[in-house]
Each structure stands twice: as structure tokens, then as C-alpha cells.
Amino acid sequence: MSLRVTGSVDASGPTIGGMRSGPTTIILAIAIALVAGCGSDDDGAADAGSRSVEIAAVEYAFEAQQSISIEAGETIEFVVTNAGTLDHEMEVLTDANRRLGATERIAPGDTDSVTVTFEEAGVYRVICDIDDHRSRGQQAEFTVVEPTT
Predict the structure, then answer these.
(1) Whole-structure pTM over 0.85, yes or no?
(2) Which domains does the chain possess?
(3) Which has the closest alpha carbon to 76: 130, 113, 106, 22?
């Protein structure tokens, strides 16, 4: 069962959220699902500070199973599957619109990934910049927090 988070982004915490406005325009709709576990190399060593999250790109939204926390210094592999009927992509941007990474254009049913290291706490965005997808709501802001340890 997919959870679509609605409401405003909590500026005091790392949850990624969004809200819906009207029947055809999704302002923000994203939650990121944590993929189980710590990846390991062939020698059995885990990659410290790295993990994967799965996202589904659909018409004018990003969806996932649950929200996660991201701390400064973490490296996240966003695994994006196009669960829609149109091509999509996902770009990760800073609050100053600096592009940190992007998937390739993803055909319906296909998957691509982008890996980003969040070096600083702050506000970041994900967008789909194909045609009018961003203006139709396929974007979201999220906050990366200072490490807790």
C-alpha cells in the first residue's frame, strides 16, 4: 500500500511531505521509501552513510511507501521507477537551484537512479523538468538536518 503524504513540509524536521491543490494540480507530493539495509561490498564491509530509497514517478507527483530522515553527510541513492504513462525524470537541486544530480529520461515501466551526497544541512528539492511536469506539480522540497551523532 502506497502512502501519499499530504500537508506542508515540516521545517523543523527531515520529513518530506506535500499537499494537493485542486483536481488536476499536485503542488507537492513526495515521500521517500527506505530500502532495507546497509549495502555491502563483496568483502562484507558496509558503506557507512550510504543507503538507497525507492521512488515512483507518476503523472505530476513522486510517490513512495514511507518518509525517511536524511542527515548532512549522508549519501543517498534515489532509485526512481516510472509507474506512470508518460516519460519522467528526477533532478535533485539545492535551494539555490544548483543541480546535484539527475536521472536520465525514464520511459514508463523503466527504472534509473541518481546518487547524491548531502554535504550540508538545508532545504533541497526534487523536480521533474520534462515538458510542463514541474509547473503541474511534480516537485517537492525537503530538509536535510544536522547529524544527530
Answers:
(1) no
(2) 19-37+48-144 (2.60.40.420)
(3) 113
